[in-house]
Amino acid sequence: MEEFPVTVHNTSLLSAFLSNLSLPTQLTSLSPSAFPSAPIEPSFLQFDLNPNAHLERLVDAADAVKAEESNLAYHARQHARERTRAEAKRVEEDAQRANQGLPPMTDEEFARMFRLPSEPSRLESMLLLGQLDAQAKSAAVASSAEMVKMYLARPEAQKGLA
Predict the structure, then answer these.
(1) CA distance 44 to 28
(2) What phi, psi does 51 have (nearest 5°)?
(3) Where's the eIF3h C-terminal domain (predicted)?
């Protein structure tokens, strides 16, 4: 085990805040008369029972994933068309070379003559899937909190709290 010296620096704003803090000079005793005897009525205005924001973000993320999936499918179809076209040209070129008495085209010559389009990066789709997963988890957390609030807002639960 080895010890390392540690130096902690506070920002000037935090140092100013800490210098203004003071300890209380006397402790006040809490008497039962300090608290009202009537229970405080619950305020339901604090409950945000509208899950639309989470659902809208979730739908937007799903739309983005679907759009990226469509782009990848388009690129895959385009790549397949180009490959088919290049292979047809290779067969045609090999037939011409055979008529001229030349050997068929090698793979290296074929690769130099016909460039296939590169596959698109999958990074964007992976990022969008991660975003969709995060939005789904956020909606699940928010909905579970809202379910607790809905349960507490029921009249039967209010009778149990009183």
Answers:
(1) 33
(2) -85, 15
(3) 2-154
CB 68 within 8 A of CB 125: yes
* Rounded Cα distance, 113 and 155, in Å: 78
Cβ of 128: how many Cβ atoms within 10 Å? 19
Sign of CA dihedral 106, 112, 116, 121: positive
Q: How far is CA 135 from CA 6, 47, 102, 140, in A?
A: 39, 21, 61, 9
Written as tens digits, the pLDDT of the chain (162 aa) is 788 888 877 777 777 777 777 766 665 655 656 555 655 555 554 555 566 888 888 899 999 999 999 999 999 899 889 889 988 998 998 999 899 998 988 888 887 877 777 778 889 999 999 999 998 998 888 888 778 777 777 776 666 555
Q: Delimit the domains of the chain by residue range.
A: 45-161
Distance CA 155, CA 71 (A): 52
pTM higher than 0.70: no
Name which of 60, 70, 61 is nearest 129 in CA terms. 61
The Cα–Cα gap between 97 and 101 comes to 6
The SS3 assignment for 5 reads: coil
